[in-house]
Amino acid sequence: MKVACTEKSQILGSKVAKALDLPLVYTQFKAFPDGELYLKTGAPDEETLLVSSTVDNQSLIQLLLMIDACEGSEITLVLPYMGYARQDKRFNDGEPVSSRAVARALSAGVSRVITVNIHEDSVLSHFRAPAEDITLAPEMARWIEGLGCDDPLILAPDKGAAAFAAEIAKNGGWETDHLSKTRLSGEEVRIAPSSVDAEGRDIVITDDIISTGGTLATAAGMLKDGGARSVHAACVHGVFASGGFARLRAAGLASVASSDTIESAASTFSAAGMIADAIRK
After folding, report:
1. pLDDT value, residue 183
2. In the chain, where are the structural domains located?
3. Could you say which of 8, 45, 66, 192 is the most buried, measured as most Cβ atoms within 10 Å of its Cβ?
4. Which residues make up each annotated binding site for ATP?
5. pLDDT tens digits for range 227-274
6. Are 83 and 60 in contact (CB under 8 A)?
7. Common-topology check for domains 2-134 and 137-269
8. What does the record give as the active site (predicted)?
9. C-alpha separations of 14 from 4, 20, 33, 126, 271 in Å
């Protein structure tokens, strides 16, 4: 087996190859003057482990080209971050179910698919190859342990993310809760833990994805006003659109961390170990 990766997943792909003690295939990427993409990868093995986050349209096209380039090899596709996965329903007539369209396109030519904390588990059913989702909850818990906080409170940003926060908290034996909004007036809303007092506590807000960070930044300010000792944020997929990372730091968060499913300077912990464990099974 060899490991190949697309351009936006070079670092994670290299880490996965190292964790599995497998050779990494070098791939050349370029664009033609008309914007069409080109790649040339090394000779595939009988089996290929293809690591590719589809963080934008270019990386999605690169992945489709890479799958075709590896034709004849048995491909295990690892999608650390799957773009278009958040639209899993048709809300208005004429809309595509984007997650289904992308999953079907990426299924052609692959024998197995592994995702990482996909936003909706139902998306897995759209792949036309066996698909499974793995969680980075243990890695996030290890990062939280490294903060050196005294009995941190693990908070989900809403009730829908409470199960993931509880999964992280279980790894460290910590208390967990979710944030809730209380409308105080027509214009004033209070955001606070649903049932646990944050005063004097070190707070870690966890989620699968941070996009713009707007709600989280507002919540962090209210938690600090409510007496929290410190507020941190951690997510699996750090999108940080529209200046989201800077917004969170400007809001006074003590730290903001994400994994390397989307590679950036905020990538503080890695998905490589959990991906390697899934491949070894």
Report:
1. 56
2. 2-134, 137-269
3. 66
4. 34-36, 86-87
5. 999 999 999 999 999 999 999 999 999 999 999 999 999 999 999 999
6. yes
7. yes
8. 181
9. 9, 10, 29, 28, 12
Give 54's DSSP letter: B
- What residues have CB less than 8 Å from 277, skipping those under 6 apart? 134
Annotation: CATH topology of 137-269: Rossmann fold (3.40.50)
Calculate helix-pair angle for 137-146, 162-172, nearest 10 degrees: 60
Radius of gyration of the chain (CA): 20
Feature table: binding site for Mg(2+)? 119, 158
From the annotation, which residues make up the binding site?
A: 34-36, 86-87, 119, 158, 183, 207, 211-215
Token pair for residue 202? Answer: 């070190």
Eight-state DSSP code of residue 193: E
Q: Which residue from 114, 118, 81, 84 is spatially nearest to 100, judged by alpha carbons?
A: 84
Range 2-134 classified under CATH 3.40.50.2020: yes
- pTM for this model (two decimals): 0.92
Return the SS3 of 238: strand
| Own/partner pairs, 166-173, CB within 8 angstroms, 24+ separation | 167/135, 167/137, 168/137, 168/140, 168/141, 168/144, 168/206, 169/141, 170/137, 171/137, 171/138, 171/141, 171/142, 172/141, 172/144, 172/145
Say how far apart CA 156 and CA 208 lie, in whole Å: 10
Q: Is 181 a catalytic residue?
A: yes
